[in-house]
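>> received
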Amino acid sequence: MSNIYEKRRFSFGLLVVFATLAFIFTGCTDEGSDPEPTKYTVTFNVDGGSAVSAQSVELGKTVTKPANPTKAGHTFANWYKDEAKTTLWNFDTDVVVQNTIIYAKWVSGENVQSYKVTFNTDGGTPIQAEQTVVSGELVAEPPKPTKAGHTFANWYRDAAKTTLWNFATDVVVADTIIYAKWVQEENAQSYKVTFDADGGTPVPAEQTVVAGEKAQEPEKPTKEGYTFANWYRDAAKTTQWNFATDVVVQNTTIYAKWVSGDNVQSYTVTFNTDGGSTAPAEQDVVSGEPVAKPADPTKEGYIFSGWYNGQTPWDFSTGITQAITLTAHWTEAFTVTFNTDGGSAIAPLTVAKGEKVYPSSYQPTKSGNVFDGWYTDEELTTPAVGNNLTVNASLTLYAKWTPTSELADYVGIWQGNNGAYIPLLFIKIHGLQAR
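>> returned
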């Protein structure tokens, strides 16, 4: 009996030991191991197109862009975040934070016009893949490039980098190049731009904008029982924020303005540049609200004179009451070029026809010489009238110089004339000869 008891006690002891060891080894195995990452399911709503497989994507990771689906009688346009297909899904930058549906958009017709979109990074890291975009569709914003000693400012629609490319609203209508703008790092102060949607959704994402650059206009939010009017620079909503011209110089909040009612009258405002650069995008403006003034267009050989409604200059503080087209007015212009004959450079002037220029305002310098005025001919026989030169054609003004060595033996009285100080009376030091 005693032996049986001892055997049972020994067996129980072994069981305790094995259980303890198993617990320890299990604990050692679990301790320090990474937990399974959270994953979400991404499905593709192809809206009648060929099937696209769902993806299991880790929290905070991007989605792998699938091959374009097909649909009889249609051309695939792009993938969108929302069922209304207003906001592109960006496979380079958008990350997954929940179970997600991505929606296919189609354009009727199998041979729809498409265009190539390329990115000029101006010495920055290249954007390798050009985009093929169906006419009238949005461009997917690429990752920001980098450039040694510089901070990326923004993407622009023109090589002069005057007009932002807005990836939320600008559509492709031709083969397109989009240009990167850079700021030297020592000058690259940046500011935060936040949007107060005043109860609307979605609230636009905060933007980081380099000082002196423009903020990107976000998509319009919505609010039940209201119509979005515009974005304003002040909480009282008295002064619009103009995304075409206003630049960021400090941390900034931009405020949404709403008009009560879901079906408030809106009017379309279009712009005609009359042969100038690409027309600004049309605006859909709520009745009574002002039109946002676009950036000034350009036209070779002309100066922009303003936007007109018919023959009347348009006042951009005026509330809109009907659909209108605003047309650019132009004034013929000429170029005045300065030939300084080896002196310091003076930039050419663009002058409206019939306007005056004042040559005396432009004084170059040249080592070992005294500037003796501007002339209208290369032979320096006809002086330009110093304060009253009317421009009716493009012209070149030529600088005349007198070497300082020729003046070394003279002292005398100087008189201002022809945009320079010239000798009125000189007396030669040696022999007192009058000049």
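>> The first helix runs from residue 2 to 30.
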